[in-house]
Amino acid sequence: MVKYVSTRGNAPVLDFDDVLLAGLARDGGLYLPETWPRFSADEIRALRGLPYAELATRVMAPFVAGCLTEAELGDLVTASYAGFDHPAVAPLRQIGPDQWVMELFHGPTLAFKDYALQLVGRLFDHVLSAKGRRVTIVGATSGDTGSAAIEACRDRDAVDVVILHPKGRVSEVQRRQMTTVLAGNVRNLAVEGTFDDCQDLVKALFNDHAFRDEVSLSAVNSINWARVMAQIAYYFAAGVALGAPDVPLAFAVPTGNFGNVFAGYAARRMGLPVERLVVGSNRNDILTRFFETGVMTAEGVVPTLSPSMDIQVSSNFERLLWEYLDRDGRAVDALLAEFRRTGRMAAPQGAWSAMGELFEGHRFDDDATLELMRRMRQATGELLDPHSAVGVGAGLKARLARPAPLVALATAHPAKFPDAVERATGHRPLLPPHLADLLERPERVEVVANDTASLKDYVRRFAGRTRTTATGTMATGKPA
Ligand SMILES: *Cc1c(COP(=O)(O)O)cnc(C)c1O
To answer: Does the CB atom of residue 320 touch ligand 1 within 6 A?
Structure first.
């Protein structure tokens, strides 16, 4: 049974279910498995040809053992991907000799975040019901995470969800994907402020420990281990489809918070022969600069055509640092403290050069991104959204030591960013049928001031409403 430890080495060792609910560790660190489960070559070969849900269940089972049986996990995984609009769930398309795109946009909100959040919502419900508990999830979004979280949590019994977005600063499609969900346990707040203001409000709520306990605050942001875990599955799916474990592989990943590409690293630790992980950045290229120089320096965020990667500090990078610093939590803590204080941190030479044997980074500004989108449409017919184009472009620049199939992860459906796609290709992509009437659906959203006290009042009232119901339900003997 896998136990989980914090990257800062100063928090309790937890089981899977507590890691799921905790999100962040109490010492400020991120949870990781104490030991990586390993799959033998034969076990990897045995994954070939399995339906996606079955493959994903086998890959994830060791991480949840002791908390969920493989059959329980299998039911949740099957339900999670049943609504995806492609039978392969994560299909591969060839774009060149030994070059592939893995389409990770066949879930309900058209971004790869559905692959993890659909399962995480169900895991929350399962674990909370078993414990007779409820939680209130509060999160801030600049676009894709909010809708994926809402879609994953709507109508779940044990979860209320409140999502903050900056008023007038998300695209209409992104806003409507959130505000047209009228489920009773979902609330959307448009904050008079920026995305950073939204994040600061959420942080303020989490830092008030009394309030946190009072409303059972929880988070499903990308530092939650269960999100990384669910993403490992599609690396295995791509790998065995292209000949692993008998063939080495490379992946190119458009990267923001480093959660997606870290799942590729995890797959390698579990035995998948991943030879290269290529990180794609837009102009917010802190990671690419780090892999080039070994020094991480924070700069201001600039808006780009790929807004889900407009990120200053990649929170999941802490997990990689911990692994390459030989799991020394105190060293991780010291480096990150230096970074917070000075905006700069230099990795030890040995750790940085070891990372360089597996990772490389490439950056693309908006013009280069549009050019890639145009070229790919011409050469292969594939319409790429701007994020996916950055991934494909990074893959094309990969420095591979020996030939290996290269898989670029396409993280959003082109119709999520129709203006950029039309600008690049002259072709305006249509929303898929289940969202075709999105622009006509009624919306529910409340505008709130950028003010912590009134947000607390709001969350308290909202959580209190359901908590009364929950108590009533429990009193009648039905499961909470
Ligand atoms: C979130 C997101 C990313 C970045 O993924 P990380 O795990 O944060 O690195 C890339 N593309 C799209 C479309 C996203 O929504």
So the answer is: no
* Euclidean distance between CA atoms 70 and 76, whole angstroms: 10
Which ligand 1 atom is at minimum distance from the Cα of 259? 7
Query: d(Cα 13, Cα 4) in Å, to the nearest integer?
Result: 6
Tell me how far apart the terminal alpha carbons of the chain are, to the nearest angstrom. Answer: 28
CATH code matching the domain that covers 90-108+225-425, chosen among 3.40.50.1100, 2.60.120.10, 3.10.290.10, 3.40.50.300: 3.40.50.1100
Please give the distance, rounded to the nearest whole angstrom, from the Cα atom of residue 412 to the centre of ligand 1: 8
- Lowest-confidence segment of 294-298, 306-310, 362-366 by average pLDDT: 306-310
Q: Which residues contact 4 (CB under 8 A, 6 or more apart)?
A: 13, 14, 15, 16, 19, 31, 32, 33, 34, 225
Amino acid at 33: P
Per domain, the residue ranges of the chain are 90-108+225-425
* Identity at 26, one-letter amino acid code: R
Q: How far apart are CA 38 and CA 18, in angstroms?
A: 23
* C-alpha distance from residue 274 to each of 249, 258, 359 (Å): 5, 17, 11
Q: Judge if the beta carbon of residue 187 lies within 6 A of ligand 1.
A: no
Cα separation, 249 vs 265, in Å, equals 12
Q: Which of 362, 373, 258 is nearest to 319 (CA)?
A: 258
Q: Which residues pair with 211 in a beta bridge?
A: none
Task: Give the Cβ contact number of residue 390 at 10 Å.
Answer: 33
* DSSP letters for 32-72: EESS-----HHHHHTTTT--HHHHHHHHHHHHHTTTS-HHH
How confident is the model at residue 466, as a pLDDT?
55
Global pTM reads 0.94
Which tokens go with 442?
């009624």
Residue of 112, 277, 281 to test ligand 1 pocket, by largest number of atoms within 8 Å of CB: 112
Alpha-carbon distance 155 to 79, whole Å? 14
Q: Which atom of ligand 1 is nearest to the CA of 113?
A: 15
Backbone phi and psi for residue 434, each to the nearest 5 degrees, phi listed first: -70, -15
Cα(221) to centroid of ligand 1, in Å? 12
Task: Write out pLDDT tens, residues 98-120.
Answer: 999 999 999 999 999 999 999 99
